[in-house]
Amino acid sequence: MAFDICRYYHKEDRLEIDGRITKSFVRIRIGKVLDTQTSSNNLDVILIGLGMTVGFCIILMHLTGMWPCQLLNVTGNIIQVDKYQNSNEAIYQFTYEMHYWLKGLFRCS
User: Fold this and answer.
1) Which residues contact 99 (CB under 8 A, 6 or more apart)?
2) Domain parsing of the chain, residue ranges
3) What's 12-66 look like in SS3?
4) 6, 39, 58, 85: which has the highest count of C-beta atoms within 10 A?
């Protein structure tokens, strides 16, 4: 179907809009939209998105007064992560390891 749309607009060399004859930009735009391959041009979008996410989290933490160490301590007490240390199930072991890895990452005491 994508090929048919591009071929259809490729047949039109010019468009007439409000009595003016202009070059067809529709074919170029549809071709770019249908091309779903990730290019290096998307790297800036990814970096901006990550930066905005981190910034939003920092603003939210500042407004609530809850920082990563406090959140990890509260979450560890509510879920009781320490009992997962000797568990046989992989998900509980993963939860325990990730909790203490994050505490080490943020240098929580």
Assistant:
1) 72, 75, 76, 81
2) 2-37, 41-105
3) CCEEEECCEEEECCHHHHHHHHHCCCCCHHHHHHHHHHHHHHHHHHHHHHHHHCC
4) 6
**Contact indicator for 84, 76 with CB cutoff of 8 Å:** no
Q: For 57-86, how does the pLDDT look when each residue is reduced to its tens digit (9 = 90+)?
A: 999 989 988 888 998 998 888 889 989 988
Mean pLDDT of 82-106: 91
68, with CB counted inside 10 A (0-12, 13-18, 19+), is: middle
Contacts of 92 by beta carbon, 8 Å cutoff, 6+ apart: 84
Do 96 and 83 meet the contact criterion of CB atoms below 8 Å apart? Answer: no
Q: What's the pTM?
A: 0.48
At residue 17, φ and ψ (nearest 5 deg) are -120, 120
